[in-house]
Design a protein that fits this description.
Blueprint: E1 8-10, E2 13-15, E3 19-21, H1 37-44, E4 51-57, H2 75-90, E5 95-99, H3 108-111, E6 116-117, E7 126-129, E8 132-135, E9 140-141, H4 144-163, E10 168-173, H5 178-183, H6 193-196, H7 200-213, E11 218-222, H8 236-247, E12 254-258, H9 265-273, E13 277-281, H10 294-302, E14 307-310, H11 312-315, H12 320-326
Parallel strand pairs: 3-4, 3-14, 4-5, 5-10, 6-9, 10-11, 11-12, 12-13, 13-14
Antiparallel strand pairs: 1-2, 7-8
Amino acid sequence: MHDLFEPVRLGRLRLPNRLVMSPMSRARAGDRGVPGPEAALYYAQRATAGLIIAEGTQPSLAGQGYPGTPGLHTDEQVRGWRLVTDAVHAAGGRIFVQLMHTGRIGHPSVSGLRPVAPSPVRAAGRIHTAAGRRDHLVPRELTTEQVRATIGDFADAARRALGAGFDGVELHGGNGYLVHQFLASGTNRRRDAYGRDRARFAVELAGATADAVGADRVGLRVTPGNTLNDVTEHDVEEVYPALVDTLAPLGLAYLHLAGVPAGTPLAEKLRAGWPGVLVAAPGSGADLPSDGGRAEGERWLTHGADLIAFGRAFLANPDLVHRLRTHTPLTPPDPATYYTPGPTGYTDYKPHHPASP
């Protein structure tokens, strides 16, 4: 079994430990989607992670679903992210960015554009906007040409990410957002090639991004069976192993598997079919375990994972690696500050300093 605290190689990077900071939206990038000095401090504080995956970042204005999320489609956004990557690298860290297009999960009051999706299927429920919660709309179905243009937007954003100093990019293929909407039977009712083969969009997207920046700088996150944002999947056991088999020859940096318990038949099948680095993000229950998810992460290591992604535990514990290594109690995060402006609940958590003997 691997140890959480031993070094490992990831593409051209040498990671000092196997702990990954999961991408987590913090909604502090303002109206223009530009990260600022506070974001640079936030990520630099957590640079002891083996790898940081920065929060979901829209590759185009059409990909923005929520207010305050960052982008990578303007020069100003690139300059803002450069503050972040420079700070992380100066602190000895390594950082990818997650490229996230929310698809039908959005509202014109956020981006000025009607949300788009594989098919015109409205999501149940409401979405948060700066003007309060609004009903989801029936999205505009992407034409085949627009699908290909969207893939180009991701590739362009990946190039911008490297220009901003990131070590690589992760494609968000889960949580009910655009890539997941293509994969899922409940949201993809197309009759063209992207409907007959629901994995095609994800595969072409990964290939185009790999061509743009190098396969060893590209990861893909998937969340099989996750029903977030009203996504329904009726053939998880068939779609995801087939997706992994098709992606395997591309030589991507990693596959990031979230929400699938270690040792289950699907987890075992995906591990067996994926020849490269597997990042496992243990299940996300309502309550954060007192150990931050360490026990479940170590169980995943016994089942073939190479890296373990920790989410909420990193929010209130910038020194999570030290705390887990020394079995120091964790500070619980404050959900009321997850998406609120300012430093409270963002950069004001203090590292643990052991008492002097």
